[in-house]
Structure formats: structure tokens, C-alpha cells
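User: Hey, quick favor. My workstation is busy. Could you predict this chain's structure for me?
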Amino acid sequence: MSKKLDNLGVSAFCESMAMMVQSGITTDEAIGLLQSGNAAADGILSAGLAVMKEKVDAGEGLSAAMKESGIFPSYCLQMVAAGEESGRLEDTLFRLSHYYADQKTISEKLRSAVTYPAAMLVLIIAVLLVMLLMVLPAFTEVYENLTGSLAASTYGYIRWAYVICWVALIVMVVIAAALIIGLILWNAGKKDVVEKVLRGNRLCAQILDNMGMFRFTSALGTFLASGEMQDEAMEKAIPMTDCAAVEKKLERCQKSMAEGHSIAQAAFDEGLFEPVYGRMLLAGERSGNLENVLARLTDLLRENGGHLVDRLVGIVDPLLSGVLMVTVGLSLLSVMLPLIGMMNSVA
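Assistant: No problem, here it is.
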């Protein structure tokens, strides 16, 4: 099957499976119950459950059945397989449910952060086109009818109005084109190119790093909960960051761990987290509560990521609105000045 479940679908499946496993229901019975509940649906999950039911009835494990269905992401499959091997399937499924629910929330947050400025850009471009194609020509025609021909001073005012609108329009079109090109490159798998450009802005760099660390801590905590050793969990969690700059830091931590340092000590020495969080991670490791601390850090990183995105939108929104108001205001002022001069002359 080529289509995959979205983050919300994976989260719902994992949570449902976890609750049934927790209740003592066997894997084949749990899949059968989910299949009967989706019998009337004709979607990705119902087709996947049919394949899974066939495989578990043949004696295969949950992770193998999920893989055969082809509807789950590779990370989910790795985690379920690790949970089965360690006998901690229930905990693993619950963590996966939270992980994909968080991914859904963050994706929607980022999408809204991009959609609103994009809508503002379209609005600004539309208003500027109306100014250039309808409003300014209308004023020009009125002045020509009143005076027979535009005086030099009047023409100067009109010319400045056209210049202001054209400059603003060109800038807005360039920004819109950059957004479209960036989106195309991102979807084409060339995220590193887009990241290099975004890192030119400090706030964007902070958002990228925060999102990368969020994905890492969430993956690391889930791998550890599934019974993986620290070095193995670290190795498998690094590719989940989807952020080149964060991966380089984590690779240095991995080298430090190879030299004998614990994962918390390596993270503290490398400065992966703020000092207070780094010490919290050290304390959690020494007390045997590393998984709980990682879960808390994941929540903090998710909240911080949301705040950073809101901060970016809070900067971009007034900036774009200001450009629109200033451009339109100056243009209208430029075309109104000759009319004010005419009225003063008549008076």
C-alpha cells in the first residue's frame, strides 16, 4: 500500500492498541475489534487492518503485521518491534500515541504560521494591483479632466504614488515567490537548502533547533521505554531530529558516549539543553528517572516551540500589515496633495 496514515491516525491506532493490551486483550483480538469497528469504513486504516488481521492470524507479531500493512511510518514500526522484544509493548504504544499526537499539533502550528502570512501577502498584492490598475489611473484621469493636462507638480505627485506602489508590489511578489520556491524545495526533499536560508534569521534558527530537539527527546524517551540500551537508543534517535544542525551536536554527544560518558553527561557537556534542563537530566539519570525527565523535557520543548512560532507570527503579522497601511497611505496622500492644492487655489 502506498498511502500512509497521518499523524493523528497513527496516534489513535497506537492509543487504542495500548488500552486493549493493557486490558489483557491479545494482539489478534485487539486487531479484530478495531477491524470490526472500522468495518463500514473504506479507508487506509480499514484496508491496513484487514492485512494485519490476516498476518497475526498466521502467527506473526504486531510489528511484522504493521509492516506488511504498509500504512505506518518506519519510526513507529521500529518502536513497536523494540517494545515487543523487550516485553514493554504497552508502554511503547502509549508513548507512540503521545508522540504522534504532538507531531500533529506541531504540524498544525507550523502550517498556521505559514498560512496566515501567505494570506496577508496575497491580500497586499491584490490591494497594490487595485491601486495601480484602478485607483491611480482614476485620479490621473480626474486631474487631466480638471486641468486639461497634468501640471509638472501634479505629475510629480502622481509619479511618486506609482513608484511607491510598484516598489511595494515587487517586494511582495519576490517574498511570495521565495515562499513558493521554499515550499517546493521542502516537499522535494531539499530541506537542507531551505534550512540554510531560514537560519539567516535568528528566530527561525531557534525554531528549527527547538523542533529538532523536541523530536530527538521524544524519540529517545520512547526508545529507552521500549527497552533499548542508551547507546543504541541514541543512535536510532538521532535521525529522527530531521535537522542537520542538531544532528551534528548529537553526533558529538554520541562520540562522548563512546568514550565512556553517560547520555546525560554527554548532553550536559555539549550544551544540548539550557543549563537548568541539563542538570535536571543529570539528576534524573542518577535517580533512575531518566525516562520521566525526558518526557518532561519533551513537553517543555513542545511548549517552547509553540511560543517561538507565536512570536514569529507576532512579528510578521504587524510587519506585513504595516507595509500595507504605509504603502496605501503614502500613495493616497500623494494623489490627494494636488487636489488639496487646487482647492486652496479656488478658495
